[in-house]
Amino acid sequence: ATQAALLQGLRAQTAATAPATAGTGAEQPDPAASILDPVRLAQWRLDSGEALDPASAVAAAREANATGHPARAVRFITGLKDHLATPAAVLELVEARMSQGEYGAALSVMGSYRSLEADHPEPLDEIRLLLAESRVLCMAATGAVSESANTGLLAAGAARKHEELLAKATERSAELAEAGDISRADAAALEREMILARASCNSAHGRFLENAAYLGPLQARTAGYDNGFRVLIGSWLCEALGLTNRQDEAVELSQEIERLLDVPGIGRGDLARSFARVLHVHLAMGALKPAGQLLDQHRSHGRTVLFPGLSAELANGLLHAYAGDPEPALRCLVPAVAQLRLGGPASLVPLAASATAYCLALSGDAKGAALHLQLKTKAADGGPWSVRRGTRHFAALAEAALGSPHAVRRFIDLAAHDHRRGVYAYELLSLLSALRLGDRENLDRLLAVAAQQQGPFARMCETYAKGTGSYDTQLLIQAGAMAEQAGHIRFGREASESALAVASGSGDRATVRFIHRSRRGAVAPQPHEGSDST
Known about the structure:
Blueprint: H1 2-17, H2 38-47, H3 54-66, H4 70-78, H5 87-99, H6 103-116, H7 123-144, H8 162-179, H9 184-204, H10 208-219, H11 227-243, H12 247-260, H13 268-284, H14 288-300, E1 305-307, E2 310-311, H15 312-323, H16 326-343, H17 349-362, H18 366-378, H19 385-401, H20 407-421, H21 424-436, H22 443-452, H23 456-470, H24 473-486, H25 489-506, H26 509-523, H27 526-531
Antiparallel strand pairs: 1-2
Helix pairs in contact: 2-3, 3-4, 3-5, 4-5, 5-6, 5-7, 6-7, 7-8, 7-9, 8-9, 9-11, 10-11, 11-12, 11-13, 12-13, 13-14, 14-15, 15-16, 15-17, 16-17, 17-18, 17-19, 19-20, 20-21, 21-22, 22-23, 23-24, 24-25, 25-26
C-alpha cells in the first residue's frame, strides 16, 4: 500500500509540472515514465500490485536484458496475461532464459509459441523469431537439452536444423529488404544480429577455424560499428585465434578488447560475455598470468559476475586449478559448486565439479574427488563447446590424480579429438598432460604441435618435451623456470623434480646442488608473503 501510494504521489507531482500531452485513457503515457527508466518503473508497478501492459512489459524486459538483468526480464514478461501470444514478449523471454543458461526453459517458450499458431508476426519479429529458434536449437544440439524434453520442438533430429533456420532468416531478411517491407536501418540491424548468431553457433560447436575465417574480415571493418558489437565480434575472434594456432594475434586482440571493456555505453550482458570469453582464451592457451591480471582488472571495477552463473569466484577457482594450486582453488570452487547446484545454470555444474574433483584429488581427498566426479557425470553434458571441453580436461586430470590406469589414453584421445577440430591449443595441453603422466610415445607429436603454436606456453611445452626426451637437465630446469614465471605452479615443481632426478641419476652433483639452492631461494620468501593474508 505504501509503495502504491508513493507511486501515485510521484505521478501526480510529475503530471502537475509536466506539459499536457495528447491522448486519452490507455493512450495517455505514464507520468512517472518521464523520470524513471522502464525497468525501475516496471518493478515499482509490480511491487505496488499493478499489472503491466504489454508495451511497458516488453520495453522493461528489453532494457533489463540489455543491462544484464535477465531475471527481471523474466518477471516482467511472465506477469503478462497471454504473453506467449505476443512475439515481442516471446523474444525477450527467450533472450532472458538463454542468458541465464536455462536452455530447456527457452526451448519450452519457443515450443509453446509455435504451438499457439498465433497471427503472422510483423516482418522484423518474424526474422527475429527465426533467429531465436535457431539459437535455442543450436544450444540443444550441443546436448544442453535432452531430445526427450516435452517441448514440441525437439522431435527426432530437430536440434540439428538450427543452421537451416539461420539460413532461412538470412534469406527472408534479404527478401523483405528487396521488397521494401523493412527499412535500410532495420536490414542493417538484422544483418548485425545474424552475424552474431553465426559467430555464436560456430563457437558453441567448437568450429574455431571456421570462426577465424568468418570473423577476420568483419573485424577489419568494425570501426564503423557500435562498441558493443565490436567487443562481441572481437571476443569471438580472439577465442578462435587463441584456440587454433594464432596465439600472438589473440593476445594483441585481447588487449584491444580489454581497452574497449572500459568504454561506457556497452551493454552489461555483452560486456560480461566478452570478458568471460577472453578469460577462457587466456586459460586455454596457458597464459595464466594475463588471466590473473584480467580478473584483477575485473575486481577493480567492482564486477562480481562474468556472465550469469560464472562468478568471479568460480573464475578464480578455475585459474588456480589450471595452475595446479589446490588450496586457493578449493576455497573458491567448493562454494561455487554449491551455488550452481542451487541456482544454476546447470551447464556450468560439470565444469565446476570436475575442477573441484581434480583439486580434491591433489589434496589427497579421494572420496571427495570421486563424489564430485559423480556429480559431474549426473549433470547435463551440454552447453558451449568451451565449457564441455574444460570439463573433460579437469575430469581427466582428476582421474589421473586418483591413479586411473587409463588417464594417459584419455588425454591422447582428447588430443586426437582436438586435432580433428583444429583446436590445437587444447591438443597441445592434452599432449603435455599425457607426457607429464609418463607418455613418451607421443613426444614427436607434441613437439610438432608446439612448433606450430605461438606464445610462451608453446615454447615451455617444447622445452620440456626436448628436455624429457634427451634427459637434458638444463632444458628441464629452463622449462621449470618458464612454468613458474607463467604461473604454472605445479608443472614448475614437476619440471624441477625431473631435472633433479636426471641430475642425480647421472651423478651431476653440481646441478643437484644448483637445484637445491634454487629451491631454497624460491621458498624462502613464502612465510613473509603469506603473513599478510593470515
